[in-house]
């Protein structure tokens, strides 16, 4: 059975999942196209973080970084490969969106890579649409930028 719960960036299981995600992305893209963010460096009031537990083991995570303008950026969405194919990504994104909307966030944006086909399809299934680069990003041929209005 899977559960989605609140998390913090300092939890060892979250740190391990993010390290696995970083290794995966480092193998796909050069450093200048890896837009990695240290979630632990963010103020608590700007961060929404969730993890997926399976039998009390963390198998996925994702975050939203809230901006002062009512928008947010989805970051660090990752599901352990052995637990994919069970709609956990859709459930995690829905939980993040609900939490963001509850914090007065009206729009979510994200950046993902062109080689992450499953991630792009997941975001599209969840209603995200491709858009131009948004601040602080610059156009990058290895990046795909997406957005969804929450209200």
From TrEMBL:
Pfam families: Acetyltransf_1
Organism, as annotated: Kosakonia oryzae
Superkingdom per UniProt: Bacteria
Domain named N-acetyltransferase: residues: 2-151
Record-linked PANTHER family: AMINOALKYLPHOSPHONATE N-ACETYLTRANSFERASE-RELATED, AMINOALKYLPHOSPHONATE N-ACETYLTRANSFERASE-RELATED-RELATED
Protein name as annotated: Acetyltransferase
Keywords, in A-Z order: Acyltransferase, Transferase
Coiled coil: none
Entries under InterPro entries matching the protein: Acyl_CoA_acyltransferase, Bact_Acetyltransf, GNAT_dom
GO molecular function per UniProt: acyltransferase activity, transferring groups other than amino-acyl groups
């Amino acid at each position: 059975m899977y559960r989605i719960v609140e998390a913090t960036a300092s939890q060892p299981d979250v740190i391990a999942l993010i390290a696995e995600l970083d290794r995966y992305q480092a193998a796909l893209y050069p450093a200048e196209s890896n837009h990695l963010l240290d979630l632990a460096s963010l103020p608590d009031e700007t961060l929404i973080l969730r993890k997926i537990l399976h039998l009390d083991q963390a198998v996925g995570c994702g975050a939203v970084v809230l901006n002062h303008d009512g928008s947010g950026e989805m970051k660090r969405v990752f599901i352990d490969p052995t637990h994919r194919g069970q709609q956990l990504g859709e459930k995690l994104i829905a939980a993040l969106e609900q939490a963001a909307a509850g914090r007065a966030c009206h729009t979510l944006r994200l950046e993902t890579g062109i080689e992450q086909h499953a991630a792009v399809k997941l975001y599209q299934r969840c209603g995200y649409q491709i858009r131009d680069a948004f601040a602080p990003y610059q156009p990058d041929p290895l990046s795909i930028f997406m957005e969804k209005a929450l209200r």
